[in-house]
Design brief:
mainly alpha, Arc Repressor Mutant, subunit A, 2 domains, globular
């Protein structure tokens, strides 16, 4: 290849940037499919089928899968492929405990610094969740965004990074805690109480309510799992694999 036909460094950089951007977009779409339950725990990610569906080559699919593996949403099984990760009920319960502590800190911090604009955003999300109290597919993404905004608005970057990592894993289970009848309405009443405490800049109450909110979600998940198995929670039984969204 002569100098005239060789791609310039700028062109090469643009191509790399385009590939990275495409892989990021693909990763976000795969995350959405996992969060929504479209891709369930244990499902195999077929690179060719996903490439055809998303209108991309297999390269960005492969790159996106590597990112999802790092965030522990998928796992690679040698000689078999990439699968949406399955986590045990006990793993999920442990994550809830850690998440509740982080959420409490976020609430205490946020109450001291929340702005009218942030309150407006959170209030809008609560109103939209209330309007979707009977529609899990519509409610769940709003629920995820509400929790993410509470942590983001706290301004603690380390807390936000740790929380997001845990929340990513918990996507494999969190929808299950909202499936039972009336759970979304109960959850949203808790959301409104948190919002009220933040509006009043009551850090102690906001932190307590946010910790209790996460633990309430944990309890809903435990009750649902016990109802499905017909067995009261036992450590040995809790560790059995349960598919997300089942």
């Amino acid at each position: 290849m002569n100098e005239a036909s060789a791609p310039s460094a700028t062109v090469t950089a643009l191509r790399i940037r385009r590939t990275e951007t495409l892989a990021t977009l693909v990763r976000k779409e795969l995350e959405r499919m996992i969060v929504s339950g479209e891709l369930k725990a244990g499902d195999r990610l077929n690179e060719s089928a996903l490439a055809d569906r998303l209108g991309v080559s297999r390269g960005p699919i492969r790159e996106a899968c590597r990112g999802l593996e790092q965030s522990r949403l998928v796992e690679v099984v040698v000689n078999r492929g990439t699968f949406v990760r399955q986590i045990s009920l006990q793993d999920a319960l442990d994550i809830y405990d850690v998440r509740s502590a982080l959420f409490g800190v976020a609430g205490e911090t946020l109450a001291k610094r929340i702005t009218p604009s942030q309150l407006s955003i959170l209030s809008d999300l609560v109103a939209r969740m209330n309007g979707a109290a009977d529609d899990l597919d519509a409610n769940y993404p709003l629920n995820v965004e509400y929790h993410a905004k509470l942590v983001e608005f706290s301004g603690n970057v380390r807390l936000m990074t740790t929380y997001r990592s845990l929340a990513q894993e918990l996507h494999l289970f969190r929808r299950r805690g909202l499936v039972s009848e009336g759970s979304m309405a109960v959850s949203n009443r808790e959301h409104r109480a948190i919002l009220d405490a933040l509006a009043k800049r009551d850090g102690a109450r906001a932190g307590r309510l946010m910790r209790e909110h996460i633990l309430a979600g944990k309890n809903r998940l435990m009750k649902l799992a016990e109802a499905e198995t017909g067995v009261a929670a036992e450590p040995s039984r809790r560790r059995r694999r349960l598919t997300a969204g089942a």
